[in-house]
Design brief:
The chain is built from 29 helices and no strands. It is an all-alpha fold. The longest helix is centred in the first third of the chain and has 112 residues.
């Protein structure tokens, strides 16, 4: 059995566990006593070996201690001697430092003098060389060796920079400029031939000559000049086709006139829309070929040469491009096509009266812009290796023909929307004969309700056009245009609403409760009375139904405008994200350059993929960009109103609709209650008879029963409107609340009118008090049937009128204002001639 001593050195050694483990590892045939005895003997042997080893090692350690002590003393002595030696060296260095500083200063002065002498020597040599070069340069030019001439001129330039502004060499400086121009002129024909015939080696040599004399700009200009001619031929191909097509048309027309048989022209018409994509394709192919060739011929310059060629091309055809776009937009509308005019002509006012910008004009412009956008993306892919600034300048040149149109975008949209909304049928209501007022009202309300989704669709299409055409860079102008057009539309609705008031017969009627104050009541009451006689009950209810339908117009306008404004805010938020406003806007606020050498714009615009039309425009107009970014940042706030003025006008229109509907619903009540305060029954007295007559109950009069029947019938009139609103179960509760709210509003108005008439009674007899009490009780029962509480004022009228005259004073003293309305009770006492003193 082997004995493992490892567990004994552990800090967590447990003797019992170790013995149990050793016992369990014994052989199955070996007894425990034998196993433990053997284990004990082995432990004793090991312990004796350990003790012997410790004793031996301890004796050896005691022998080594004196030797170690002697070594420590010797090391200490060596350290002391080393310290003294280092101190002596430091003292010597300090002494040497003082003397060497003076020596170094003297050497620096000597070196400065030496450098000046060398510079003067080199200057003298350059001056001598310049004189020699100036004398021999004509011979070099005469030899026709252009590289050698370039080298000579470069040396002359170097020598002139070395000698500085010396009067003696002023003529040489002028001579050098003339010679450089001369050499440039000598290079140009050869460079033209090399570029035209694709001579790579010759082009490279000539480039080296121009670079040597600092004329790289000349290389750019000449490269563009050589290729611009070919590209302009592509552009002028459209005019050639137009002329050929015109000649063919004239020839065919002449043949048709001279021939007895009818003749159909087979010459196809040429449109700018069909021609522009092919021009872009040919131009892109030309640029691709130039890019590939320049990568070989000018490996250091192709990233700027080819983009510069495209920039120069767009500058050369820019005015013609704008003119063709303008005419192409006019071709889509017969009126402007006949006049050979386009959008810019309409905007300038140089058009006959009645011709306005139409949606087709702008859609045609957007279609052309989309074609250019495809070409711009291809160019961005082709020039992806170019510097970011170069790429941006190139794309701006590609989009430049549309800039004048984009600057007038807000004006265009205003004109288009105004024209489209003017085409929506919003005729006001006209007064018809008896029996036709309800029909006129219903038709007008239908036109109003149908116009709302039409206008919202027009506004939504405007937002889509703005994003498609300007990329959102004209979002601020879009908001202003939409707000103005919404104001124009709502103003038209309000004018139509005024005409509805005339048709409904409430243009001059008001009650002071939720409407205008009433004036000239005698005359108007007479008009109302005559109206009651003329208009049938059926037509009255048709007018009520038509007026209630106006509420759906207000509800539709409110909901649709709210949804449109929320959609508009979401669009502005997307624009904010796409343009990376948070980074780009901060650079604008700090008045920093938008493009830096290390590609700042690339990070601020979210990388090269974001070089779209909006970003390119905003770089050059920081003030406009700042305003746009402020608008887009504000749109992230839920409280932000994209159309602030329109939102206020929508609310005002809804209030006007509610006022009209209330006036219509309350008009019949007003008619029946108009003369209540002047009824003769209030001052009537009982007739005395010699015979005893039976006492009969007092019945409510016709005026109050008519009002009550109208109020009780009103829920049935509101039910169709509630069903129209409750088109699903989710809105059922809302519709019921809506109908109940209007029923309560009309009932409260009727009660207020009734109380106002009661306050106008100057005197009431006992018999009149009984009659009025019966009338009030009937009205109170109607309110109870409508689940409304009886107002305290009306209850006070009833209590004071039903109380005998001689007990009225005691009633007021006993109540003391607990249940009665004291001002009303005092008024009734005054009516009944009861003194409270």
């Amino acid at each position: 059995m082997m004995l493992d001593l490892g567990p004994f050195s552990s800090d967590n050694f447990d003797p019992k566990k170790w013995i149990n483990a050793a016992t369990q590892s014994r052989h199955s045939q070996e007894s425990v006593d034998e196993h433990l005895a053997e284990l004990e003997s082995k432990l004793q042997m090991v312990s004796e070996e350990i003790a012997a080893s410790l004793e031996e090692q301890g004796a050896a350690a005691l022998l080594r201690v004196p030797r170690a002590t002697r070594d420590v003393l010797r090391l200490r002595e060596d350290a002391v001697s080393l310290r003294s030696g280092v101190s002596a060296i430091l003292q010597k260095l300090k002494k040497a430092e003082g003397s060497s500083a003076e020596s170094i200063a003297a050497l620096a002065k000597v070196d400065t003098v030496k450098q000046r002498m060398e510079a003067a020597y080199e200057t003298l040599q350059d001056a001598a060389g310049l004189t020699q070069l100036s004398a021999t340069v004509e011979d070099v030019f005469a030899s026709g060796d252009l590289p050698r001439a370039a080298e000579t001129l470069a040396n002359m330039r170097h020598c002139l920079s070395a000698v500085g502004e010396v009067a003696e060499f002023a003529n040489v400086r002028k001579q050098l400029e003339v010679l450089e121009d001369r050499l440039d002129a000598m290079v140009q024909p050869r460079l033209t031939d090399a570029l035209s015939n694709r001579k790579v080696d010759v082009a490279q040599d000539l480039r080296g000559i121009l670079i040597r004399i600092g004329r790289f700009k000349s290389l750019e200009l000449h490269y563009s000049k050589v290729h611009l001619k070919s590209i302009k031929q592509l552009w002028e191909d459209f005019d050639s086709k137009l002329r050929a097509n015109k000649l063919a048309t004239e020839r065919n027309e002449a043949e048709r006139l001279s021939s007895s048989n009818e003749f159909q022209s087979n010459s196809p018409s040429i449109s700018f829309y069909s021609w522009l994509p092919s021009f872009y394709d040919e131009l892109l192919l030309y640029l691709e070929q130039e890019w590939k060739w320049c990568t070989v011929a000018f490996p250091d310059d192709y990233k700027s040469l080819v983009p510069k060629l495209l920039i120069e091309t767009m500058a050369a055809v820019g005015s013609s491009f704008v003119s063709r776009i303008n005419l192409a937009t006019g071709d889509v509308v017969p009126e402007t096509k006949a006049l050979t005019k386009g959008i810019l002509d309409i905007l300038s006012g140089d058009m006959p009266k009645g011709i306005k910008i139409q949606t087709k004009h702008l859609e045609a412009l957007i279609e052309l812009h989309n074609m250019t956008g495809i070409f711009a993306r291809n160019i961005q892919h082709l020039f992806s290796e170019s510097d970011l600034r170069v790429l941006m300048d190139t794309l701006k040149a590609v989009y430049f023909p549309y800039e004048s149109f984009k600057k007038s975008y807000g004006q265009m949209e205003r004109a288009i929307l105004s024209s489209e909304i003017a085409g929506v049928d919003l005729r006001g209501a006209v007064t018809r004969g008896v029996g036709a007022q309800g029909i006129e009202l219903s038709e007008t309300v239908r036109r109003m309700e149908e116009s709302i989704p039409q206008v919202i669709v027009l506004l939504e299409a405007t937002v889509e056009r703005c994003v498609s055409f300007t990329g959102g860079s004209e979002a601020d102008e879009l908001i202003l245009a939409l707000d103005d057009i919404m104001l124009q539309y709502i103003s038209t609705l309000q004018e139509t609403l005024k005409s509805l008031r005339v048709v409904c017969g409430v243009d001059h009627v008001a009650d002071g409760v939720g409407s205008k104050k009433e004036t000239g009541s005698d005359k108007k009451d007479g008009q109302s009375a005559r109206k009651v006689d003329v208009i049938s009950n059926e037509e009255e209810w048709s007018i009520v139904q038509g007026a209630l339908q106006i509420l759906t117009v207000a509800d539709c306008l409110t909901s649709r405008s709210s949804v449109f404004e929320a959609t508009l805010r979401a669009t502005l938020a997307r624009l904010s994200t796409s343009l990376s406003i948070s980074v780009f806007g901060s650079s604008l606020d700090q008045n920093q350059s938008h493009v830096s050498d290390d590609g700042t714009l690339e990070s601020s615009l979210g990388g090269r993929a974001a070089l779209d039309v909006a970003a390119l425009r905003l770089v050059d107009v920081p003030e406009k960009a700042r305003k746009l970014f402020n608008l887009l940042n504000q749109s992230k706030d839920p409280r932000f109103h994209a159309l602030p003025l329109a939102s206020q006008r929508v609310a005002a229109f809804a209030d006007a609709v509610n006022e009209l509907v209330y006036d219509v619903l309350i008009s019949k009540v007003r008619q029946h209650l108009s003369d209540v305060s002047r009824l003769p029954v209030w001052s009537s007295v009982e007739e005395h008879s010699a015979f005893p007559l039976p006492t009969f109950s007092v019945y409510p009069q016709s005026y109050v029963t008519s009002v009550g029947e109208y109020l009780l019938t009103l829920p049935q009139q509101l039910e169709p409107l509630a069903e129209g609103i409750s088109n699903n179960d989710a809105n059922n509760d809302e519709a019921q609340f809506f109908a109940t709210e209007w029923m309560f509003k009309v009932a409260e108005g009727a009660t207020a009118l009734y109380i106002e008439q009661l306050r106008g009674i100057h005197y009431i007899s006992d018999r009149g008090a009984q009659q009025l009490s019966a009338d009030i009780q009937y009205h109170s029962n109607v309110l109870s049937a409508l689940s409304m509480e009886n107002p305290p004022v009306l209850a006070t009228f009833d209590t004071c009128l039903s109380t005998p005259r001689d007990q009225l004073k005691d009633l007021l003293k006993l109540d003391s204002g607990n249940q009665l309305d004291l001002p009303t009770a005092s008024l009734v006492c005054k009516m009944r001639r009861v003194s409270l003193d």
